[in-house]
Amino acid sequence: MSQTRKIVIGVTGASGTIYAIDLMKKLQEIANVETHVVFSAWAKKNLQLETKLSLTDIKDLADYFYSDSDLGATIASGSFLTDGMIIVPASMKTVASIAVGIGDNLISRAADVTLKEQRKLIMVPRETPLNTIHLENMTKLSRMGVQMIPPIPAFYNQPQTIQDLVDHQTMKELDALGIKNDIGGRWEGI
Ligand SMILES: Cc1cc2nc3c(=O)[nH]c(=O)nc-3n(C[C@H](O)[C@H](O)[C@H](O)COP(=O)(O)O)c2cc1C
């Protein structure tokens, strides 16, 4: 039997809560994956604004759900072993706080832990247009090995629905997490 993979998911108040929900739904269907999910206060607000789901629905999609103020949670310590963290969507505020090492909430602390333990950290940064501060923060993190997967749609797979666009993004995130998936929409060559 293969070992359970522990994935930390931080959800912040950038637009695009739908991406986090889709990732959580797909991970719930995959065997031997355990999700540790944190929603920031503004992520909870955007959940209300952008979707029809409640926080209870979200908790049902997670194996473990934490408050962003819970700095005593397991995932706030490097001694709690995980297989990596993804922040989806990542606000420019959270990107900035991670880039300068401010671990004053559970998402930025867990990201700081992920970096110091040299584990996989993936971000889905969402803002447009991007200013130089945003770009410099992302460049700094990228140089440290953080994988940036902004939610930029591809059209070579002829998406027809919003779900098609979201599927393609989630496929990229699962690929980065090293989780095999058959979501589709891959380039098959000409
Ligand atoms: C409806 C709405 C949409 C937002 N979209 C973005 C966004 O796409 N990118 C971003 O960086 N901030 C966005 N913000 C601002 C963040 O929510 C704000 O900077 C907040 O402090 C982020 O905190 P957090 O990272 O702890 O969630 C948005 C705010 C609201 C209310």
UniProtKB/TrEMBL annotation:
Amino acids binding dimethylallyl phosphate: Y156, K172
One MF term in the entry's GO annotations: FMN binding
GO process annotations (BP): coenzyme A biosynthetic process
Reaction(s) this enzyme catalyzes, per UniProt: dimethylallyl phosphate + FMNH2 = prenylated FMNH2 + phosphate
Domain Flavoprotein residue range list: 6-176
First-level EC class: transferase
Superkingdom field: Bacteria
Keyword Lyase set for record: yes
InterPro entries: Flavin_trans-like, Flavoprotein, UbiX-like
Residues holding FMN: G13, A14, S15, S40, S91, M92, K93, T94, R126
Gene Ontology terms: cellular component: phosphopantothenoylcysteine decarboxylase complex
Pfam families to which the protein is assigned, alphabetical: Flavoprotein
Keywords: Flavoprotein, FMN, Lyase, Prenyltransferase, Transferase
EC annotation from Swiss-Prot or TrEMBL: 2.5.1.129
Membership in a protein family: Belongs to the UbiX/PAD1 family.
Known function: Flavin prenyltransferase that catalyzes the synthesis of the prenylated FMN cofactor (prenyl-FMN) for 4-hydroxy-3-polyprenylbenzoic acid decarboxylase UbiD. The prenyltransferase is metal-independent and links a dimethylallyl moiety from dimethylallyl monophosphate (DMAP) to the flavin N5 and C6 atoms of FMN.
Record protein name field: Flavin prenyltransferase UbiX
Organism, scientific name: Companilactobacillus mindensis DSM 14500
Encoding gene per record: ubiX
